[in-house]
Specification:
The chain is mostly helical and 206 residues long. 78% of the residues lie in helices and 0% in strands.
Length: 206
């Protein structure tokens, strides 16, 4: 019974999470026999086969390297997000001659509140579909790249407001585009947690 359960668990892991991780977090340093090493680790795992606990060595430094890469990328993303969050409210409230949009506190609260509701609904209903349809690495890369137009739009909005002397419909359109870009950029949070989870799976199998 235990051997049958072990066999089923090995096939399930190898066919789903392990295969996905190897395709997602691959690097030039992956050994050619990494699949067989992970399978051997599954065979000897006491949690899957009921065998007595044994000390074993991680077959390669791939899991550790992958986890470090994931954490570095997550740190970069958090830096971009925190910088934008701290700057955006100041940008909205600052006078137009000083580089902002001169929004009132009520307008700022309305903009941020509606944006927050939209962000949450998008992540709840569309992120699972995006994650299944596209490669997770591509989703993460596009999420990070979304900060390029986000940061570029702020001086453009201020320049348009300065030329018109007020916030025009074009400025509101750019502001809506910024919030839409932020919505997709926030998918990097979810993808980072997915990457971290599968790296931890590799470490556990090691």
């Amino acid at each position: 019974m235990s051997s049958k359960r072990c066999k089923n668990s090995k096939h399930a892991l190898h066919g789903s999470s392990h295969h996905w991780v190897c395709q997602t977090l691959t690097s030039p340093h992956i050994p050619q026999n990494f699949d067989s090493q992970v399978d051997d680790a599954i065979d000897t795992s006491p949690h899957l086969c009921g065998a007595p606990a044994q000390s074993h060595v991680i077959p390669s430094n791939l899991p550790t390297q992958s986890l470090v890469i994931v954490l570095i990328n997550y740190a970069i993303f958090v830096f971009l997000e925190v910088s934008f969050t701290a700057t955006f409210a100041l940008f909205l409230s600052s006078p137009i001659p000083l580089g902002g949009l001169a929004f009132t506190p009520q307008a700022i609260g309305l903009v941020l509140g509606c944006a927050g509701i939209f962000h949450g609904l998008f992540q709840a209903f569309f992120f699972p579909r995006i994650h299944k349809r596209w490669e997770p690495r591509n989703v993460y890369a596009v999420s990070i790249a979304a900060y390029i137009p986000i940061y570029l739009c702020m001086p453009i909005m201020n320049a348009l407001a300065k030329r018109a002397g007020q916030v025009t419909p074009l400025v509101w359109t750019l502001l809506a585009l910024v919030e839409m870009a932020c919505t997709f950029a926030y998918t990097a949070f979810s993808e980072s947690f997915v990457f971290t989870f599968y790296c931890q799976c590799l470490l556990t199998l090691g």
